[in-house]
Amino acid sequence: MLLQGNLSAPNGTGIDPSVFFLTGIPGLEALYLWISIPFCLMFTVALLGNSTLLYTIKTEPSLHKPMFYFLAMLAIIDLVLSTTTVPKTLSIFWVNSREISFNACLVQMFFLHSFSTLESTLLLAMAFDRYVAICNPLRYASILTNSMIAKIGLAAFARAVLPVIPLPFLVRRLPYCGSHVISHCYCEHMAVVKLACADTKFNNIYGIIVTVFIVGQDLMFISLSYVKILRAVLSLASKQEQLKAFSTCGSHLGTILVFYIPLVLTATIHRFGSHVAPHVHILLANFYLLFPPMMNPIVYGVKTKQIRDRLLLLFQGKSI
Fold first, then answer.
1. pLDDT tens for residues 185-203?
2. What pTM does this model have?
3. To 10 degrees, the CA torsion angle through 176, 181, 182, 184?
4. Which residues partner with 101 through β-bridges?
5. Judging by beta carbons within 10 Å of its beta carbon (0-12, 13-18, 19+), is residue 181 exposed, middle or buried?
6. Residue by residue, what is the 3-state secondary structure of 121-158?
């Protein structure tokens, strides 16, 4: 096959310079059909779950509150993250469609990194929401007004997207005179930069700084918020009040764990697991992008009574 010849060519001879090739998961090609089953199921659950969550929040007036507005933003982010990478990955598994134009690769890279960063920033905004609800409940409605939520959403979007905008331009300026084979299922920044036949030190440093500065800062402030929340909860008089206060944070804590545990695990293995097989790196990277979008609507659907009750009515075909 021509594609196989291109993938095996070490120097990219005869390859259109505007076309790149995604390897998928090297070494597991014989298992693609089986691997695609959990990928497709997780993708389907993510699409249906987040779409249902958005519909439920939109159509139920009792859910038109700050916490659920933030949850709707999270559902949109998860839908974008899922649809940015998974359809191409499944096309590799099912029909061996490995080609991707350089421009499409850069667009995918931008959406992938900006929206994964945006999810981290939104989790920080949601931590602030829980902090105000528990530590300053009497002023909750006056602090988190609709205009304030809109401002927080726009600020989170700008904070996540603006630092990522230079990445595609930094990648585009590099020469790619060697192989055009990207060792991944999608156009991850460092996987593309490795193909450049030039000094990529600035790209490497910039990518690390953006990740550490934004995600690290988000995690630090989320931790600080929960320290203050914990102190406020433990100061409550009765165990019943403490449990009720903790229960309001349960869904958000679950979402934080679902997002950050795969992220930290993937980053740790990527940086320090030099002896880990490449297919393990790629599987973990895909798990990081698939697992949170699938689990977030499940966590909130199970833990949040208002959403659970509304979904029950929805599936039973009743109207309010």
1. 999 888 898 888 888 888 8
2. 0.87
3. 180
4. 19
5. buried
6. HHHHHHHHHHHHHHHCHHHHHHHCCHHHHHHHHHHHHH
